[in-house]
């Protein structure tokens, strides 16, 4: 068996691993790559013939893992895409959103006088191609062994991270020998608000492990309720301002709404208004309600006690222009949760722009912001930012918290690795991926301290290993 590291190799985006088992070819994930120094259209170039891929095993719905599957389809792929049921429901919303986003960017570009190309060259795929791709999806529950071919089988186990996220244990037989490789996928922290902690894979010979936060230790010592309450107190209750929280539509939005619901039920919010302005976030919130058996015990018992994990009387969902107008004209203290995270795209950008002028507002960045994003620019605190080619002076306050992170920090990764070693006595090689180089190098040093003499590689993009 050969494994090729085709994405998320010494970078975070574009997860894609090719497994070549002589006559069969499988992909684990097929995500969009959106690195700063890379053209978006690069995603169209696959270093293999997509029609030769027999199946894609998808760990979770995030577009950096799933977003290039429709491109694969447009180039001839007709195999099955395996994932868990909640992943399928979420991925539908994200892929359609991705196609719409590409089309609206392309249309904007077309309006410019300089544009001479073809609209089809500006997009990776259309909504109708996404719908055709979705017909290839097959859902599989956690721990059900699926036989891909006579020689290859796999199962999904819980990775934490977001609803439905899976790690993959794949077993293959070659030359009379049976071996196994584990892909952690994106892992979750041990104390996620809504999903279960990651379950370590067992009996592995090879491990492909994510290292997003391989050089970071969580700073926040508070639990999510106290942390959020601290920001609400400072901005809303003490000074009557608006707390704007940019949040990804999957995972982050739900963790924040659940935390706000807990604060409301504990009588800590009074009559404070909470606005949610994220159509995609609210669709995904209802998917979370539907797949409650995939949530952690805390979330399930909260639902039993209060009838809903995410709905509460102080929550105002922005559904149309009238709702938005009502919110804009409301002068009292409030919290606004809006997509997307890192303040890139989505409705949050206009909310951030509107609140920049207000010294009583705070923009709370809930998590990491990649360099080059508006979120990062705001956090750099230079006093001004550029939005759509215009300079804006920043009068509002900025704050950041890592309490809602959907990835384990260095300590969590070490703990996870320790449990893998306890349950896998024949480990031959570890591959660290899904992290910037510095992060993976630091993680490698730390893991070497847990298990010495075990080869740990940081594969480069396109690097191939025989396993
Ligand atoms: Zn992810």
- The proportion of residues in beta strands is 15-25%
Judged by helices, strands and strand pairing, the structural class is: alpha/beta
Q: Roughly what is the average pLDDT, rounded to an integer?
A: 94
- Residue ranges: pLDDT <50 for 5 or more in a row? none
What is the name of the CATH topology of the largest domain? Metallo-beta-lactamase, Chain A
What are the distinct ligands in this entry? zinc ion
Cα distance, first to last residue?
A: 6 Å
The number of distinct β-strands equals: 22
CATH superfamily label of the largest domain: Ribonuclease Z/Hydroxyacylglutathione hydrolase-like
Q: Looking at the structure, what is the overall shape? A: globular
User: In the CATH hierarchy, what is the architecture of the largest domain at level 2?
Assistant: 4-Layer Sandwich
Spatial strand arrangement across the major sheet: 6-5-4-3-2-1-22
Q: How would you sum up the major sheet?
A: 7 strands, mixed
Give the helix proportion (percent range): 25-40%
Query: How many whole angstroms does the radius of gyration measure?
Result: 22 Å
Number of domains: 2
Number of helical segments with 4 or more residues: 14
Which CATH top level class of the largest domain fits?
A: Alpha Beta
């Amino acid at each position: 068996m050969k494994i090729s590291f085709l994405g998320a190799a010494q970078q975070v985006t574009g997860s894609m691993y090719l497994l070549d088992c002589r006559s069969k070819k499988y992909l684990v994930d097929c995500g969009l790559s959106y690195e700063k120094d890379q053209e978006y259209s690069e995603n169209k170039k696959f270093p293999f013939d997509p029609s030769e891929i027999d199946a894609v095993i998808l760990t979770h719905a995030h577009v950096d893992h799933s977003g290039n599957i429709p491109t694969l389809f447009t180039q001839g792929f007709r195999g099955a895409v395996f994932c868990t049921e909640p992943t399928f429901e979420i991925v539908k919303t994200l892929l359609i959103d991705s196609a719409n986003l590409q089309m609206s960017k392309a249309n904007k570009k077309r309006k410019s006088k300089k544009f001479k190309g073809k609209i089809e060259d500006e997009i990776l795929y259309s909504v109708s191609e996404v719908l055709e791709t979705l017909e290839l999806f097959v859902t599989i529950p956690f721990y059900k062994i699926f036989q891909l071919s006579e020689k290859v089988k796999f199962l999904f186990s819980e990775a934490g991270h977001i609803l439905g996220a899976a790690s993959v244990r794949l077993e293959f037989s070659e030359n009379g020998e049976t071996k196994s490789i584990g892909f952690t996928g994106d892992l979750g922290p041990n104390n996620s608000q809504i999903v279960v902690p990651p379950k370590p894979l067992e009996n592995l010979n090879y491990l492909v492990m994510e290292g997003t936060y391989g050089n970071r230790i969580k700073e926040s010592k508070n639990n999510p309720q106290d942390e959020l309450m601290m920001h609400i107190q400072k901005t809303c209750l003490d000074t009557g301002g608006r707390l704007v929280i940019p949040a990804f539509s999957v995972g982050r939005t739900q963790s924040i709404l659940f935390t706000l619901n807990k604060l409301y039920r504990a009588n800590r919010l009074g009559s404070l208004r909470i606005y949610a302005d994220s159509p995609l976030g609210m669709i995904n919130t209802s998917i979370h309600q539907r797949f409650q058996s995939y949530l952690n015990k805390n979330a399930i018992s909260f639902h039993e006690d209060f009838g809903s994990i995410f709905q509460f009387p102080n929550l105002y969902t922005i559904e149309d222009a009238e709702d938005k107008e009502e919110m804009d004209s409301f002068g009292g203290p409030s919290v606004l949760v809006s997509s997307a995270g890192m303040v890139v795209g989505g409705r949050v950008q206009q909310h951030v722009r509107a609140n920049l002028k207000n010294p009583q507002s705070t923009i709370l960045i809930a998590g990491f912001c990649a360099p080059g994003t508006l979120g990062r620019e705001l956090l750099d605190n230079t006093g001004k930012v550029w939005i759509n080619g215009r300079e804006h002076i920043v009068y509002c306050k900025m704050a950041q918290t890592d309490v809602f992170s959907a990835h384990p920090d260095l300590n969590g990764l070490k703990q996870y690795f320790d449990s893998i070693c306890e349950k896998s006595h024949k480990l031959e090689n570890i591959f660290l991926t899904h992290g910037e180089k510095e992060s993976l190098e630091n993680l490698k040093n730390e893991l070497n301290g847990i298990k010495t003499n075990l080869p740990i590689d940081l594969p480069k993009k396109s690097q191939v290993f025989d396993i």
